[in-house]
Amino acid sequence: GSSQRKRVVFVVGGPGSGKGTQCDLISRDFEVPFFSAGDLIRKLIAAGGPAGQQLQEIILQGQIIPSEVTVGLLQQAMSATPSETVLIDGFPRNAENRTVWQSQVGYDCELVLLFECPEETMMQRLRARGQGRPDDNEETIRKRVQNFSAQMSPVLEHYRALGKVATVRTDRPIAEVHAELSALWRQRFG
Ligand code: UP5
Ligand code: MG
Fold it and tell me: Does 94 sit in the ligand 1 pocket, CB within 6 Å?
């Protein structure tokens, strides 16, 4: 049923660290569905309405939208897939995200894949991306990077204490990062 417990893998890392790119590849190779919190939020905004406008303003400030909204979107997406394992890209972003997930979903993730990338590299990638995301402007990019480093530490501390964090350096060619992630995935999940 929809409340079936799943094996959840969180993929976290700064903006432009390569989360979407690598989740696509893992999803393809291991046939595991992935849900991007950011994509789900952008779809909700695109659907229109005053609530969407408020969310868009938060995103343009590089801030994190209310946890209940994001967790609701992720729950909805997860309940629609029969897969036992799911990848979640770009969540949690702060301590409150994590605790709301825990109370709303009722169980924690199994693994956190942390993408480590120098800030300057991430910013260069986002400047160069030019796929028309409204938050890819210089001012918002800077705020996204700042908020990531300011707000993720308690989340990572929590998961490190549980031995759930696997760190991957992502300032390398896409194929190299993917090879390392694939090996890690095979080792963990067969
Ligand atoms: N690229 C990727 N890998 C590369 C490599 N190894 N070498 C060279 N280039 C590489 O990659 C970014 C760019 O770099 C691309 O052009 C890619 O080709 C290239 P991508 O894979 O898109 O990186 P990703 O980490 O996914 O970057 P993204 O911009 O999506 O990260 P964000 O974390 O900023 O975006 P997200 O969509 O997750 O969130 C957006 C906003 O939504 C947040 O700022 C926040 O306001 C809001 N949000 C919430 O409030 N709550 C949430 O739970 C989630 C989001
Ligand atoms: Mg992304």
Answer: no
> 14-61 pLDDT, tens per residue?
999 999 999 999 999 999 999 999 999 999 999 998 899 999 999 999
Report the Cα 70 to chain-centroid distance in Å: 11
* Residue 174, in any domain of the structure: yes
Integer Cα distance of 84 and 148 in angstroms: 29
Total domains present in the chain: 1
Give nearest CA residue, ligand 1 atom 36: 38
Whether ipTM > 0.95 holds is: yes
CATH code of residue 50 = 3.40.50.300
Establish if 15 belongs to a structural domain. Answer: yes
Cis peptide before 92 (omega within 30 of 0): yes
Name the residue of 19, 45, 69, 141 to mutate for ligand 1: max ligand atoms within 8 A of Cβ. 19
Expressed as residue numbers, the domain containing 74 is: 7-189
